[in-house]
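Recap quiz, item 2
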Amino acid sequence: MHELSVCQSIITQVTQIAHENDALAVTKVIVQIGPLSGIEAPLLEHAFPIASAGSIAQDAVLETQTLAIRVRCNICGNENEAPVNKLLCSACGSWQTSLLSGDEMLLKSIELEKSEEQAHV
Amino acid sequence: MCDTCGCNVTDANRNLIEAGGKHAKTEAGNEAVEVLQNLLHENNHRAAHNREHFDKHQVLAINLMSSPGSGKTALLEATIDALKNSSEALSIAVIEGDLETENDAQRIRDKHIPAIQITTGSACHLDAYIVHDALHELSLEGLDIVFIENVGNLVCPASFDLGHHLNVTLLSVTEGDDKPAKYPVMFRASNLILLTKSDLLAVLDDFDVTKAEENIRNLANPAPVFQLSARKNSVLEDHGMEAWINWLKQQIQHYKSHLESGETVLPKIQTEGQTLHEARVV
């Protein structure tokens, strides 16, 4: 249950970026969560309103994008998708693979509301 | 650490990033800002600071992780005893993480080894901030290894960089050989897996060592797997401590040779990012 501390970290980063951009509010926060990141997207979504309350992102929508686990075989070079606890090569069956994606825990982008005049600058 | 060099951009998300500009407008007229920072950016920043502190003193920091009751503190007690009898003296200290009580730190102090107890209250893992505070109370002068005994939990501790160098995960044989398949994030991040309470293998018919190792390999993890019984180990009879102590000595050498070439050792969970980074430079 470390999703709340992850959310608090997100809010810290988001607040800083919003201030740097002179935003009135944060409307959307987009994160990428891989199945091997150790973070559960539904728990993150539940924790987000608690962490964002009273912050510049209090009305923001949290969007979580999940990327599939993909591995590249170090033996035969094949690339394939894999389940979370079987990161094996689908071609030659070896376990000596490298992870191409699936462990992301990334704050991808945020959307900001700005005042009318700033928007035209 | 990875937000400027772009090494957190993977094959799977690159197209998403390239699709939009840095300050693209959304349909509602709001401004979209690309960030691409690790969600634990703040923690990772502090972790890097902790690691610099360890590196300045040439102290190897090892994060011990496992479920509660798998024998982390017992391993440390036996390690202290084994090091006393070892020809090559190693100086160690311990940072103990628990929800409550000073019990574990006291067990270490009883063996005349410096121990800092962290009580996390209800937090289920240590993070770089907590370890940073503990480091203020611990002198690294003359030490070879600092063991950070994480909160007993096979889930959350795996996601947090503490500023350490290596992850060691304990799996006691009473827990079952399928734990690596159930907790892939943790066991994928391990540099070494210790099958503890191994003396009980003789009376357990449902823990298959080969199967446990197979479940670890299924996570593409080449980490060594040792059997060890901290309780049964003695000067007269080795129950896996020798291999463990030798591994520690090898890791110290490995760490120091990295320091000599101006590098540090990053905990295993981050190496994939490093690899991607190197691949992009090429």
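The mean pLDDT of chain A is 92.
Chain A has three helices and six strands.
End of item.
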